[in-house]
Amino acid sequence: MDAHAHEHPNSSPPVAGLLAQFASPEALRAAAAAVRAAGWTRWDVHSPFPIHGIDRAMGLRPSPLPWLVLGAAVVGVVLALAMQLWMNGIDYPLIISGKPLLSLPTSVPIMFELGVLLAAIAAFVGAIALGGLPLYGHPVFFSSRFSRASTDGFFIFLAADDQRFEPISAQALLRSAGAVSVETLQVDEASGRVPGGLYWILATAVVLALLPPVLVTWYRTGPKSNPRIHLIQDMDFQEKYRPQSASPLFADGRATRPTVPETIPQGRLQADEHLYTGKVAEQWVTTFPMQPTAAMMERGRERYGIFCTTCHGLVGEGGVSGITSARAVKRREPNWVLPLSLHTQSVREQPVGQLFHTITHGVRTMPALGAQIPAEDRWAIVLYVRALQRSQNATLDDVPEPIRSQLRPVSP
Ligand code: HEC
Q1: Cα 264 to the chain's mean position, in Å?
Q2: Which of 18, 30, 218, 226 is the most exposed place for a label (fewest CB within 10 A)?
């Protein structure tokens, strides 16, 4: 064969390379070592199963894929952290229960997720790209012998585009390395072309991908069908009455039923004036409707923390000590009224009944909390407010005896 045939496409089909078959994995490994020793760079081996030591025989270096994956993971982690710092800390600060804006622990899940995502994509795309895929055809597939590479054939393919390629000497090399057969493979012009079927698959995928947006646009702008396509119905279209709608079932034609006069819903009887209004005979009560206990005080402390601290602050000094108040002032809310200090003379002198009434119905700009807090808890809060007030206005009489007698007056 003409050594320069592949440079003159008109004389005869150019040579793609030589395919040599070997009898056993051991022979293949020895031959691979020989080809490598001869200095070849553009060649490959094919066998039905992995062969121990073949990488070393071929002189393959470790794949750079792990480094690629590590790099992508680091980029993902850093990107996720930067993104959250920017979004939640700088661009649009989210104040949630006074927690810090820039906090590492809360960012960890997103950092982890983005790190894993980018690493997985890098591994997937990297493995395909480093493997030289997609590859639509290869000269070896034109050898009838080569189908045995998936059962019991062991092959070496020397590519013609290797600088050392010269048919005679390459044949000699393969034969001396123990090849049982050597075949010259021609370049097939069609083998590099994208298979026609792929275009159809791509076109179908594009059409399918366009369907949802087209359908959505159609139903949003086209002639209305009511209700619109509603795949998951839940209980959206069940038979039911809406508030203030008509019903033929009742004589007065109303679906909403008025309360029946002279009746009280079960469990709603509030006969105990003291407990539910904080008044007896139109006078504020000065005592609690139940015996105050340590448990009640603890309950009051907890409920106060939930319902009052956001405005009045932990100690009850009002002003900007509560976080909503601090926020409102920072934002210069025009209609914000500063919550009162619970330690002012007038509030301290109020009977417990009046404090209870304030929590239940609100006062001036303070909202009513009676609907959220059961009466017993409101009394517990009042008890705790009393304790707070005492804590800020303690006198010597409040100090228990063994300690009080040890205190010495401080000269002003
Ligand atoms: C949404 C904010 C807010 C919450 C929550 C809130 N308060 Fe107030 N509170 C205020 C404001 C504002 C005032 C002052 C109202 C005014 O002077 O117009 C006030 C006033 C008061 C007063 C003084 C009433 C008076 O007669 O002058 C008491 C007592 C009081 N709050 C107790 C409480 C207790 C106890 C809780 C929790 C159960 C609570 N507040 C929850 C905003 C709040």
Answers
A1: 49
A2: 226
Question: Taking Cα atoms as reference points, which of 304, 346, 340 lies closest to residue 319?
Answer: 340
Average pLDDT over residues 9-25: 80
- 393 pLDDT band, cuts 50/70/90, is confident
More confident residue, 302 or 181: 302
Cα–Cα–Cα angle for 99, 366, 386, nearest 5°?
80
- Please state, in angstroms and rounded to a whole number, the distance separating the CA atoms of residues 232 and 303: 41
Decide: 381 in ligand 1 pocket, CB within 6 A. yes
Say whether pLDDT at 326 is over 80: yes
Residue (of 178, 181, 154, 158) closest to 48 by Cα position: 154
- Whether residue 358 has its Cβ less than 6 Å from ligand 1: yes
Residue 128's φ and ψ, nearest 5 degrees, are -70, -50
Tokens coding 82: 């930067």
For residue 365 and ligand 1, the question of a CB distance below 6 A is answered with yes
Which ligand 1 atom is at minimum distance from the Cα of 381? 35
Dihedral class, residue 94 (left if φ above 0, else alpha if ψ from -120 to 50, else beta): beta
pLDDT digits (tens, 9 = 90+) for 250-273: 999 999 888 888 888 888 888 899
Substitution candidate for ligand 1 out of 336, 340, 365, 392 with most atoms within 8 A of CB: 340
User: Are 13 and 189 in contact, with CB atoms under 8 Å apart?
Assistant: no
The residue nearest atom 13 of ligand 1, judged by CA position, is 339
Give the model's pLDDT for residue 141: 85
| Distance separating alpha carbons of residues 40 and 362, to the nearest angstrom | 90
pLDDT in tens, 92-131: 887 777 788 888 888 999 999 999 999 999 999 999 999 8
Q: Are 35 and 169 in contact (CB under 8 A)?
A: no
- For a mutational test of ligand 1's pocket, the pick from 312, 323, 386, i.e. the residue with the most ligand atoms closer than 8 A to its C-beta, is 312
| The amino acid at 123 | A
Say if CB 187 and CB 15 are below 8 A apart.
yes
| Four-CA torsion 224, 230, 233, 237, nearest 10 degrees | 0
End-to-end CA distance of the chain: 117
The rounded Cα 150 to chain-centroid distance in angstroms is 44
Give me 229's structure tokens.
């396509």
Residue to probe by mutation, ligand 1, list 302, 311, 335, 344, most atoms within 8 Å of CB: 311
